[in-house]
Amino acid sequence: MNSGLYEGRGYSSHLFVKSASVANMIMALATLLAWPVVASVLAEPLASATDLSLGKFSNPGTFDLPFVLIWGMPVGATIFAWLLCNAGAWQLARFIAAYPVALFATSWAWFHFLRISLLPA
Hints:
By secondary structure, the chain is mostly helical. The protein has one domain (14-118). The protein has helices at residues 14-33, 35-50, 65-87, 90-118. Helix 3 (65-87) runs antiparallel to helix 4 (90-118).
């Protein structure tokens, strides 16, 4: 009896790109529709990274600079990853699809964990 994980099917990169694209779109929609909740997590790290004012209690316009990064980059990455998938560039599509989530996670981790240890005493 010979059984494998894929049972004769080839590996498909579709699942990772689709999952990352869904995560991107959820993040973009949550930013647009529930800004106070998202601001409690992402506003301060991104404001310090971009050196622009964007606080928890701010009410930014849809196209204000740091705010547009939070929803525009995931939407753009999803569209670009879809185009790359259709062109057959799977490696680049996976990178582009995962980039916004990785960038925001890195910004958050840097702000909350590493920034304090790097400040002079």
